C-alpha cells in the first residue's frame, strides 16, 4: 500500500477531551481546489466504515494472505473488532472525506497494545482510498490526527510493507523535524516513536 497502515497509542495522563475529539478537521490537499475533512464517525456512517475497512483489508491481502467467505467478506470478520471504535471509551473512529465523498478512515486507541507502551497512542488502522493517494490527503490527515490527539505516539508497519514505512518516515520526520526514534518490536513489526509535544516549531 502506498499510504500507511497502522499507528499507536496514549496514556491516561494524556486522555483526549471529548470536545476536542469530536471536532472537525478540514483543509485542502496539494490540489487546492479539493477540500477535505476528517471528522468523528456518525452513527449512520458505520456501514460505510465497514465497507471502507474491507478495502483496507483488500490492499493488505497483497502482503499477508486473507481468505473471503461466501458473501465476499474477508475472514476472520473484522466487524466485531470495528464496533469497539464506537462502543468502547478510549477508542475513536474517524472518516476522511474529499469533496465530501468517502476517501478513507482512521481508528485511534488511546493506549498502545505493544508491551510497556500503554502510555502511547495507537492508530488501529489508517487507510486512504487509491483514488486519493499521492495527492497530499494522507499526509495532511495524518498530521491532523497527531494534532487532534497530542502526546506520545507509536506508528507501526509490518516488515513487508516497505511503502508504508517510507510514507511514515517521511510524514513523521517532516512533522517532528526529525525528532523520532525507530525500532523493531518483533520480527514482523517496526515502529516509529515520537511525542507531538516535543515537535519543533514550524
Number of strands: 11
The number of distinct structural domains comes to 1
Biggest sheet strand order reads 2-3-6-7-8-1-9-11-10
**How helix-rich are the residues, as a percent range?**
25-40%
Multimeric state:
single chain
Shape designation? globular
Structural class designation: alpha+beta
CATH homologous superfamily assignment:
Gcn5-related N-acetyltransferase (GNAT)
Q: What number is the mean pLDDT?
A: 85
Describe this structure in a few short sentences.
The protein is built from 5 helices and 11 strands, in the order βαββαββαβββαβαββ. The protein has 202 residues and is α+β, with helices and mostly antiparallel strands. The protein has a single domain, classed as Aminopeptidase.
Describe the structure.
This protein is an alpha+beta fold. It has a single domain (6-198), classed as Aminopeptidase (3-Layer(aba) Sandwich). The chain has five helices and eleven strands. It has a nine-stranded antiparallel beta sheet, with helices on both faces. The chain is globular and about 50 Å long. The protein starts with 5 loop residues before the first strand and ends in a 7-residue tail after the last strand. 38% of the residues are buried. The model is unreliable at 1-21 (pLDDT under 50).
Properties at a glance:
202 residues; alpha+beta; Aminopeptidase; nine-stranded antiparallel β-sheet; two-stranded antiparallel sheet; 11 strands; 27% helix; disordered N terminus
Amino acid at each position: 500500500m502506498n499510504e500507511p497502515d497502522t499507528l499507536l497509542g496514549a496514556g491516561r495522563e494524556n486522555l483526549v477531551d471529548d470536545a476536542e475529539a469530536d471536532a472537525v478537521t478540514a483543509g485542502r490537499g496539494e490540489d487546492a481546489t479539493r477540500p477535505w475533512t476528517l471528522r468523528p464517525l456518525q452513527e449512520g456512517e458505520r456501514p460505510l466504515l465497514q465497507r471502507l475497512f474491507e478495502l483496507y483489508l483488500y490492499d493488505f491481502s497483497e502482503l499477508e494472505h486473507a481468505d473471503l467467505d461466501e458473501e465476499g467478506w474477508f475472514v476472520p470478520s473484522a466487524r466485531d473488532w470495528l464496533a469497539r471504535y464506537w462502543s468502547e471509551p478510549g477508542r475513536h473512529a474517524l472518516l476522511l472525506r474529499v469533496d465530501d465523498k468517502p476517501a478513507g478512515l482512521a481508528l485511534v486507541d488511546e493506549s498502545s497494545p505493544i508491551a510497556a507502551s500503554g502510555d502511547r497512542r495507537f492508530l488501529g488502522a489508517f487507510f486512504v482510498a487509491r483514488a486519493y493517494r499521492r495527492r497530499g490527503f494522507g499526509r495532511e490527515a495524518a498530521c491532523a490526527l497527531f494534532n487532534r490527539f497530542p502526546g506520545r505516539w507509536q506508528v507501526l508497519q509490518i516488515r513487508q510493507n516497505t511503502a508504508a514505512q517510507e510514507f511514515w518516515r517521511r510524514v513523521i520526520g517532516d512533522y517532528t523535524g526529525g525528532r523520532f526514534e525507530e525500532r523493531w518490536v518483533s520480527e514482523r513489526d517496526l515502529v516509529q516513536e515520537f511525542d507531538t509535544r516535543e515537535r519543533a516549531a514550524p
